[in-house]
Write a structure and sequence with these properties.
Length: 216
């Protein structure tokens, strides 16, 4: 399975995917492209080190968003991925991309959807809201991308307990370490081995066992 990984920041989820492929936790998969909107994204350094083709194209390089959207669609069509993985991608994915790759785009969100998600919930802000609300449990979600924001069918989730002494930063880091970097690779491997299907707005995983997810 060819995957294109879209990034905007540090790329630790990208690194988890690279490492999981190299260590055999993700099978049948190659990263055919890393795309970033942000030329300063350390994720690009990670792609370079791993010898993965990358493209950087910022919306700022275009007259308007429409032209950027067209360019992004063409970049992805040229890469011809079977799956598009949003790994910390802060660019709003244009509807025309969602339609062109319907059912073949997944995203990692740093909370247990449907809590603390939707427009404006990204990065540290998610964890700030979790702490503000006094939630005892948070975590991460891998879901299919549809035309909404964080609204597509849920593939995997992994809970992480919130600690009384947590800051947004410590909670973010623990959710990345204990949840994101585990369930994103697992979701990709499941998809690469045709273990996932969508029935209505729910995902069915062949031989699914949450204990396996919890033990990751
Ligand atoms: C992660 O917390 C992810 O959940 C969110 O953005 C962050 C990206 O981190 N979407 P990285 O670029 O993968 O390190």
């Amino acid at each position: 399975m060819r995957i294109a990984v879209l990034v905007s920041g540090g790329g630790t989820n990208l690194q988890a995917i690279i490492d999981s492929i190299n260590e055999g936790r993700i099978t049948n998969t190659e990263i055919c492209l890393v795309y970033s909107n942000n030329p300063k994204a350390y994720a690009i350094e990670r792609a370079k080190k791993a010898g993965i083709p990358y493209v950087v194209k910022s919306p700022k390089e275009f007259e308007n968003r429409q032209e950027f959207n067209e360019a992004l669609l063409q970049i992805l069509k040229d890469a011809d991925p079977d799956l598009i993985v949003l790994a910390g991608c802060l660019v709003v994915i244009p509807k025309k991309v969602v339609r062109a790759f319907e059912g073949r785009i997944i995203n990692i969100h740093p909370s247990l959807i449907p809590s603390f998600c939707g427009t404006g919930f990204y990065g540290l802000k998610v964890h700030e809201k979790v702490l503000e609300r006094g939630a005892r449990v948070s975590g991460a979600t891998v879901h299919f991308v549809d035309e909404g924001t964080d609204t597509g069918p849920i593939i995997l989730q992994k809970p992480v307990m919130v600690r009384d002494d947590d800051t947004a930063e410590t909670l973010q880091r623990r959710i990345m370490e204990q949840a994101e970097w585990k369930i994103m690779p697992m979701a990709i491997d499941l998809l690469a081995n045709n273990k996932v299907k969508v029935e209505g707005n729910k995902v069915v995983i062949e031989d699914y066992d949450q204990n396996i997810v919890d033990s990751l």
